[in-house]
Specification:
Blueprint: H1 3-17, E1 23-26, E2 31-34, E3 37-39, E4 42-46, H2 56-65, E5 70-74, H3 77-80, H4 95-105, E6 108-112, H5 143-160, E7 171-175, H6 188-202, E8 207-213, H7 216-222, E9 228-232, H8 239-249, E10 256-261, H9 277-289, E11 293-300, E12 311-312, E13 316-317, H10 336-346, E14 366-369, E15 371-375, H11 380-383, E16 388-391, E17 406-412, E18 417-424, E19 430-431, E20 433-438, E21 441-447, E22 453-458, E23 463-469, E24 485-486, E25 491-492, E26 495-496, E27 500-504, H12 507-512, E28 534-540, E29 553-556, E30 563-567, E31 570-575, E32 584-587, E33 598-604, E34 616-620
Parallel strand pairs: 4-5, 4-11, 5-6, 6-7, 7-8, 8-9, 9-10, 10-11
Antiparallel strand pairs: 1-2, 2-3, 12-13, 14-34, 15-28, 16-27, 17-23, 17-27, 18-22, 18-25, 19-24, 20-21, 20-23, 25-26, 28-33, 29-32, 29-34, 30-31, 30-33
Length: 645
């Protein structure tokens, strides 16, 4: 038995000797009751999946010292079950350790285990392998979906049961599903099934709740009997009217705003969202003055490391940073908003004594020179561990048994294209971005919803390589069944392209194992609008004689266009400074070392600066998340709104 489980067992035993703990809804007096006493929570959202484990305690302590008495967190299903029946709950995915830390610090927990969570997370937390059944109706009574949910919850819910407040743990309430009133299915049988499923695993004493937008139309499909209905809304609006919507579903009981927005989400190509501290503080004061319970979403946003970012529709992916303009920055730094919120809370709730943990120090490691390794095409044998797959028509990621990252699609030109000939995705089937070359010459980029045609030239029999990037699955709305890759045929002129060879690329494995090699020295190519997708590598040394190093930092890629970056094999995420608004990527100190040189690997997809100037990356102490954007992208998911689907 692990020390953690042993500790939980001791807690259970200790509480069995004393007065039983309880947490309940008091409908008569419109409040929660904790151990029989009137209770109101002031909570903040933190997603353990977006913060390295080494920083969980620091972030939780800062939340506690702000005056919060609770935290709220999601459990992303796909983060823990990346393939059916294979579960990961260790390291950065050790949710039990996270819950125990919150308990030790003195924070209660509002748990949101889904199965769907939204959260601007890939596919709203649902695992991509659910799409093996092509016509599956997600978030419904579809038998295949229900079977997968039952199996997952049968694994998860017994794990969290010891952490319920009644059992000596920190969890006071558990959400069932998430904002279901904004989903087209409106399947009451599905919600009833989930309610019974949660009760069967967690018991009758736990408070189960739902969350929906603050409008009667959302609550119509989102709330059902035996699940306490709460609402979410942002600052600057009519607080009384928002809670009147909750009262439509719950005439009595505590007022609850489960998502009071301290900021808002970003998209590549849209301006960085900023919400003023003054507006947030004013609305928070209104909510608390009414005696309502509130959860500040987000209190710290964190980072979409790797490939975990989601997207909205029409297709608009979210960037690597999930800073959210929250009271604690992506790196856990204290902000003016943090202290403004703390001052409001102080009016209603005693603030813990003692100093607030300081902002973690940052260090500028300077410029790191980069050199080119192999192109993706040259490295295929290394990258494609599973080997080529041949098919008449292109297959999707799911058909190739791949969830994230990149797939190379290869075919031949069926006829001479001596003049530029349109290579098109007439059904908008490039999901999500494709880098096209013919015989090693870059031709252009296809992009979902934006660029469905490129002009190509070449002789009959020329090799066509199309590197497709999954940029994150839609996480909200009716299109969350988001297939990736070439999901429909491509045409050359009027003819469909046939006879494909496909390579699933295990880029992360190749990078972390140091398998990528260098290229033979050649004369630098002439500057071009595009270059072939290729890997670049550099290294830097952190002196071990300087106290307190390594420290957090930010990586900036001046003159680079778009791609992915790894440090010491850790996938930091995507960069796209040419589109913005995010320019720098957060580099947590725990992935750096003073023992050996630190390796930086970049996969540049469009145009590396190496042929036209200095080829380098820079480490700086200052994040840039609000650069000018280079896009005509419309602002999807307008501030604080939920589309009624």
């Amino acid at each position: 038995m692990s020390l953690l489980r042993f500790g939980v067992t001791l807690l259970l035993f200790a509480h069995s000797l004393g007065e039983p703990r309880s947490f309940s809804v008091d409908y008569k007096n419109d409040c929660f009751r904790k151990d029989g006493d009137v209770f109101r929570y002031i909570s903040g959202s933190i997603h353990y999946s977006r913060i390295p484990r080494v920083y969980w305690k620091d972030r939780l302590l800062k939340m506690y010292m702000a005056g919060l008495n609770a935290i709220q967190t999601y459990i992303p299903w796909n983060y823990h079950e990346e393939s059916p029946g294979r579960y990961t709950f260790s390291g950065d995915r050790d949710v039990e350790h996270f819950l125990q830390l919150a308990n030790d610090i003195g924070l209660l927990v509002i748990l949101r285990p889904g199965p769907y969570i939204c959260g601007e997370w890939d596919m709203g937390g649902l695992p991509a392998w659910l799409l093996n059944k092509k016509d599956i109706v997600l978030r419904s009574s579809d038998p295949d979906y229900i079977k997968a949910v039952d199996d997952w919850m049968g694994k998860l819910l017994p794990m969290i049961k010891p952490y319920l407040y009644q059992n000596g743990g920190p969890i006071i309430t558990v959400q069932v599903e998430n904002e279901y009133g904004s989903y087209f299915a409106c399947d009451y049988n599905y919600m009833r099934h989930l309610s019974k499923l949660f009760r069967s695993h967690l018991g009758d004493d736990v408070v189960l709740f739902t969350t929906d937008g603050a409008g009667v139309s959302y609550l119509k499909c989102g709330s059902i009997q035996d699940l306490y209905a709460t609402v979410d809304f942002g600052p600057g609006g009519n607080v009384t009217a928002a809670f009147e919507a909750q009262r439509h579903a719950e005439p009595h009981g505590p007022l609850v705003n489960s998502e009071f927005y301290t900021g808002w989400l970003d998209h590549w190509g849209s301006p960085h969202s900023v919400v003023s501290s003054t507006i947030v503080a004013k609305s928070l004061n209104e909510i608390l003055s009414m005696g309502a319970n509130v959860n500040l979403y987000m209190f710290i946003g964190g980072t979409n490391f790797g490939y975990w970012n989601g997207a909205n529709g029409p297709y608009a992916p979210q960037p690597t940073s999930y800073d959210y303009d929250a009271p604690l920055t992506e790196a856990g730094d204290l902000t003016q908003k943090y202290f403004a919120i703390r001052e409001v809370i102080k009016m209603y709730h005693q603030i813990p004594e003692g100093p607030v943990p300081p902002t973690t120090p940052k260090f500028a490691y300077g410029t790191v020179m980069m050199k080119q390794l192999q192109t993706v095409s040259d490295a295929l044998e290394i990258l494609s561990f599973s080997g080529p797959v041949k098919s008449v028509y292109p297959q999707t990621y799911i058909e190739l048994n791949q969830a994230f990252g990149y797939v190379l699609y290869r075919t031949l030109l069926p006829f001479d294209c001596s003049t530029p000939t349109p290579l098109s995705s007439p059904l908008n089937g490039v999901h999500d971005r494709a880098y096209v070359s013919v015989d090693g010459v870059p031709m252009g980029i296809l992009e979902r919803d934006k660029a469905i045609t490129v002009k190509v030239t070449g002789k009959a029999g020329s090799q066509v390589d199309i590197l497709v990037e999954n940029m994150g699955r839609i996480n909200y709305g009716k299109n969350i069944n988001d297939f990736k890759g070439l999901v429909s045929n491509l045409t050359l002129g009027a003819d469909a392209l046939l006879s494909w060879t496909m390579y699933s690329l295990s880029v992360d494995d190749a990078v972390s194992q140091g398998l990528l090699g260098g290229t033979k020295p050649t004369a630098p190519p002439a500057p071009a609008a595009l270059s072939l997708p290729a890997f670049y590598k550099g290294s830097f040394v952190i002196p071990d004689g300087i106290p307190d190093l390594p420290q957090d930092t930010y990586i900036q890629l001046p003159q680079w266009k778009k791609g992915q970056v790894w440090i010491n094999g850790f996938n930091l995420g995507r960069y796209w400074p040419s589109r913005g608004p995010q320019v720098t990527l957060f580099v947590p100190a725990h992935i750096l070392t003073t023992a050996v040189p630190n390796n930086v690997t970049v996969l540049e997809l469009e145009e590396a600066p190496c042929s036209s100037g200095t080829c380098s990356v820079e480490f700086t102490t200052t994040p840039i998340l609000n650069a000018t954007v280079q896009s005509d992208l419309k602002l999807y998911r307008k501030l604080f709104t939920r589309s009624d689907l």
